[in-house]
Amino acid sequence: MKKYSIGIDLGGTKILIALVDKSSGEVIGVIKKKTKKEKGPTKIIKKLLEGIEELLDTFQINLNNISSIGIGAAGQIDRNNGIILGAPNLDCFDFKIKEILSEHFSIPIYLGNDLEVAAIGEQKFGAGKNSSDFVCIFVGTGVGSCIVKNGNIMYGNTGTAGEIGHMIVDLNGRPCTCGAHGCLEAYASRSAIETRIEGALKKGRSSCISEYLEEGKSITSGMIKKSIDRNDELVLQCVNEASEYLSGGIASIVNIINPELIILGGGLIDAVDYFYNETVKKARLKSLPIPAKTIKFHKAELGDYSGVIGAAFLEDRIL
After folding, report:
1. Is the CATH code 3.30.420.40 the one for domain 127-300?
2. CA 218 to chain centre
3. What is the Cα–Cα distance from 236 to 234, expressed in whole angstroms?
4. CB of 17 closer than 8 Å to CB of 52
5. How much of the chain is helix, strand and coil, in % rounded to 5?
6. Rounded-to-integer distance, Cα 91 and Cα 10, Å
7. Which of 45, 109, 120, 250 reaches 20 to 30 Å from 149, CA-CA?
């Protein structure tokens, strides 16, 4: 077996491209590219090609020593043909990513959903390694999830199962990037919190988060954490609202699927302990009493690397 694989986490704000040791799951090195302002297939491919070549050059690895390139992409995908069918946060639709990358690299290329690969990573080396029955939920630019039952990922009829972020929580609610209204993602993601804070600031609300803002740059999870540490009223209000919605979505998952474990990850969960703790507490209270007593919650253990590690092992799964 070739020793290395390249795992790619293609998200709404950044691309992580990692060299992964297949024998241990260790991340040898990572190249990071931002996607927040530069989206669409042409720009994404350019960043991917640059990042992969940079990774190989930086760590002096010949492509002959790479067994595969695995990609976890936000959005709905066609695994068999390697096509991103719809990823609004990336402005990519019917994006034949496998075909394009195959023209540049003569090794197998695999595509999975971003939460699918995060779940694979956590199942093999992280918080899910002792469980065969869990739901992985990540909160960042959006809200994504993956359901693992009896050790296997539940893909659903069209391969799109687990889209908790597009659970409708308000029939006449806020517009979502998917085109619908009232999706959980529009209320509970970091992007949703950012939108609420920015809207309040424009209306004249005061907040210490203004001290951290830079022209043309987004509100980050780190800024939110710093503001909460200073007991900022506006940021706490927006984070608490997001926690109310996310905990309701999680309680619905607990009641419907009845998993053994919920793994929570993503930038907002990683950075803001307050958000994680409040969400878990509220989710237990909102769940039915019997499953609420037994459900376990854990933070993702692999942090930012859940996706790249899982993507590196896509080749080992029957897709």
Report:
1. yes
2. 18
3. 5
4. yes
5. 45, 25, 35
6. 12
7. 109
Q: Along the 319 residues of the chain, how does pLDDT read in single tens digits?
A: 578 999 999 987 789 999 999 989 999 999 998 876 567 888 899 999 999 999 999 999 888 899 999 999 988 899 999 999 988 878 889 999 999 999 999 899 999 999 999 999 999 999 999 999 999 999 988 999 999 999 999 999 988 899 999 999 999 999 998 899 999 999 999 999 999 999 999 999 999 999 999 887 889 999 999 999 999 999 999 999 999 999 999 999 999 999 999 999 998 999 999 999 999 999 999 999 999 999 999 999 998 899 999 999 999 875 4
Tracing tokens 């619905």 back to the chain, one arrives at 252
Q: Taking each helix axis from N to C terminus, what angle separates 233-257 and 221-229, rounded to the nearest 10 degrees?
A: 120
- Map out the domains of the chain as residue ranges: 4-114+305-316, 127-300
The rounded distance, in Å, linking the Cα atoms of 259 and 292 is: 10
Does 4-114+305-316 carry CATH code 3.30.420.40? yes
Tokens at 234, concatenated: 């506006």
Residues shown for the chain: 319
- 61: three-class secondary structure by DSSP: coil
Residue 134 backbone phi and psi in degrees, to 5: -150, 165
| Three-class secondary structure assignment of 65-109 | HEEEEEEEECCEEECCCCEEEEEHHHCEEEECHHHHHHCCCCCCE
CA 303 to chain centre: 11
**Residue owning tokens 């809207």:** 199
Backbone angles phi, psi at 64, to 5 degrees: -65, -20
pTM for the full predicted model: 0.91
